[in-house]
Amino acid sequence: MEHQEFSGDDEGDVGDDDSSFPSNNEDALNSFREKWQRELEISPKRDPVKIKQQKSLNSSVSEDDTISIENKAKHLFLKGIEHEQTGKLYEAIQFYKRAVQLVPDIEFRLYESTKVKNQRFEADERLHSLDDKNREDDRTDEHEYSDDDDDDDDDNSDLFFKLSKIVSRNQRVCFPRFEQNTTHISALPMEIVLYILRWVVSSELDLRSLEMFSRVCRGFYISARDAEIWRLACVRVWGVNCGKFEPQYLSWRDMYLQRPRLRYNGCYMSKTTYLRHGENSFQDQFYRPWHLVEYFRYLRFFPEGRALMLTSTDDAQLCVNSLKSRTPRNPTILIGHYRLRDNLVTLILKKQELKTNNSNNNQYRRKRRELLHDSGEQTFHAEFEIQNHHKKVNSQLTWLTYIIYTKYKNGEEVQTRLNLGMRYPPFRFSRVKSYTQESEAPLQ
């Protein structure tokens, strides 16, 4: 009986379970979803900001690891340097190998880091020196320049003194602005820089290049104002008896700039133009032609007292190039000497002696020509006045006198004084770049 009741109950239960199967599955699914949502609420949320912080933390940890490795490699490399300096080469090699194994380019990195430190140290020193200088200037201004009626001339006169104090304090001519892989000019002492400047000025007195050099920085400005360089330039222009710059001038440089002088980095040129009567044509006796004549005169002066003069109708470029050398090849160039006295220039010129062969036939022909026509030996004496033209200083030479002395073979001398008129316009200076491209000797 019990078995039958059990089986009946089972059959009834089974029948009931089969009828309620879909509802049980839905309840189970809903319960799973509720449980899953509860777990999601309980679990920590994934915030994007926290994710970024986590990544940055991981990257910083990795960077710290690389920095620690690099520092360890630097430490080993420095130990190797210490051992190498003490003569322990085997131990030094071991430390070098260990450092290179950690960081292959450790030597380059160590060099770069030390170079940056040195540059920062120099920059800090310069800033401190400038601050100290500004404080000193403020103090001197408070004590010495308390009046309100100061002129700009006093500031300009003190500029050289202020800059020279800064350069002497830094103990260097200048500082490199950018990173240099080679030796910079700032590594040279002041004595070497001044000797280089003597080559810049050279024996041709190229003071224009010296002034351009002074525009670079304050150290070059102080170097270009060296009194000895300007004194030598004055002695070369006016001779040993040029005297002293005091009391008429402020310095040797002021004497060179203010006193009348000749210019050597170019040549003086004058253009002459006039009309000349022509010959009548046999076909038309009533027509009388006129010819326009145009030619140029060139004068070049050298510091040692030599002068060259050329009269030509050729192109100016060819004529200027022919005056570049002290011993020109053009036989038509007159060679002579000049003397400078105040603002007057006295010039004596002669024609070049033509080279003749020593053969008997040539000597016989030359003597025969001299007997037939004796043109005599000519010497040209000219005197000019140095003047300013517009804003250009010492850029014009005005004719004062022009005399030709002719000496014949029989001893007779003839003096011809030319009338200075329209055919003798003043000379105007023009700079020639090729005259100062090379330096053959320093200023002495």
Cα gyration radius (Å): 47 Å
Q: Which strand order do you get reading across the main beta sheet?
A: 1-2-3-4-5-6-7-9
- Which regions contain 5 or more consecutive residues with pLDDT less than 50? 1-22, 136-153
- Shape designation: elongated
Number of helices: 13
Find the count of extended strands (DSSP E, 2+ residues): 9
Task: Kindly report how far apart the N and C termini lie.
Answer: 146 Å
Strand content: 15-25%
- Mean of residue pLDDT values: 77
What is the structural class? alpha+beta
Helix and strand element order: HHHHHHHHHHHEEEHEEHEEEE
Helix content: 40-55%
Largest sheet: 8 strands, antiparallel, barrel
Features:
eight-stranded antiparallel barrel; 444 residues; alpha+beta; 19% strand; disordered N terminus
Description:
With 444 residues, the protein is α+β, with helices and mostly antiparallel strands. The protein has 13 helices and nine strands. The chain has an eight-stranded antiparallel beta barrel. Strand 7 and strand 8 form a beta hairpin. It is elongated. The termini are far apart. The N terminus is likely disordered.
